[in-house]
Model the fold of this input.
Amino acid sequence: MRIDVVTVFPDYLAALDLSLIGKARQAGLLDLRVHDLRDWTTDRHRTVDDTPFGGGAGMVMRPDVWGTAIDAVSGDPGEGGAHLVIPTPSGEVFTQRHAEALSHESHLVIACGRYEGIDARVAEHYRGAGTRVSELSIGDYVLNGGEVAALVMIEAVGRLLPGVVGNPESLVEESHGAAGLLEYPVYTKPPSWREHPVPEELVSGHHARIARWRRDRALERTAARREDLIARLEVATLDKHDLATLARWGWSVVDGALRRDGAGDDRGRRDSSARAI
Ligand code: 6GU
Done:
């Protein structure tokens, strides 16, 4: 995969030389190129922004500079062209599903805005020209620019590329995978640490018992921390034991879908919250 990042702070992306993504680049699995947007300015002051039409605070990034930059790094649109990613707090929220979809692309261009964002005509223009354009936010909080979001997306996408993660099995059970649950808690040596023993199921050697324990902890954790994920579970993928675990957290099946029990009864939840999840 090739990824071109355009930014006014190329140094922000220096972290991509490190760790797994750095290795993927060295191994030739990821062709990552970081560009300074100001290389495409034409004035003496290398201006990339201006005041907003309609008034208001802050500055908006100019579409002419962005257009020249994106054209220069996108390659030939006839050959499929690049998928344009614009990190912005007003985008769709970036999830593992977006990471998976983007990992199947051959070329991404990530346009990192600063200030109050990029002139809206840029996304509009490339969409109109048939380019795939994704405006994506990494969560409901405000950053000063798209660079940290680009780092997040490149790491999430990059680790899904074939050969980047050494053991592909580690991609299977982790949080936000296909099961739609958070990951179960994990433990290693020593077997007892500061009076905290490792749960006995995990040292039992019984494969089925371990699997059941992990599944229950994943369900409980998700129920405690992410009700939105429980509500989206496919009932057909849950066994009787799963439903019993969820019932203890106040969830039952109504008309084929999971529903939180009403009447504000959260006793089960409080009881379970009292122990480690
Ligand atoms: Cl992608 N950009 C900015 N500036 N702030 C954000 C964001 C992106 N995602 C969440 N907050």
